[in-house]
Amino acid sequence: MMTERIYEEGRAGREFGHIKSFVRRPGRMSAAQTRYLDMMMPKIGVPYARQILNLDTLFARSTSTLTAKKIFEIGCGMGETTARIAAAHPENDYLGVEVHPPGVGGLCKLIAEQELANVRIIQHDAVEVVRDMLPEASLDGIHIFFPDPWHKKRHNKRRLIQSPFIAQLARRLKSGGYLHCATDWEEYAAQMLDVLTAEPLLRNTADRYAPRPEYRPLTKFEQRGLRLGHGVWDLVFRRL
Q1: Are 108 and 121 in contact (CB under 8 A)?
Q2: Domains of the chain by range and CATH?
Q3: 186-204: per-residue pLDDT in tens?
């Protein structure tokens, strides 16, 4: 069944112009996730559309949205990291993209419980969102934390960090804006480094891999891995 889903997702992606970097896993929704998703998405959800967003009007603020940095996060997971970063930096606006309903519901729950006013969510494929909805030179930062490594060689082509997509992301960054990737899969980290280094609009802020920036919190999964001796690699590049 998994092979069939991979094939169907890949075929759908090719018809739309790219191979999908994810599989739509059914995943059980808890009652709380379902409730908060239904309650919060009409308020903070942004429907996918082939129409460029105005990021300055997307967030309702008591202060000027023009001074708020716009950070785009690809793959919010269950929302823990997204919520922690947004809570710690209320001066910034965060637009998250996640395809899996349990993750969207989990983030909606955290947003509601913590009364976070600076997060919006698009429940859709990130490649299509970037291509169809984000203006060029509009973002101050992009976060891609622990994307699926697709560790089997025959599935490597499904990895999110590929040169064509990174070129699109680089054009969405403002001059001086940053692209921050993190992975706990060493071989994928090496591919990320090669791909990001080859992008002419980006420069590395470190010699190779960067120390973990303070704004990226350690997840419980990551802490457990570090205790077991597993590595984590951060890469932070800036737009020229």
Answers
A1: yes
A2: 25-239 (3.40.50.150)
A3: 999 999 999 999 999 999 9
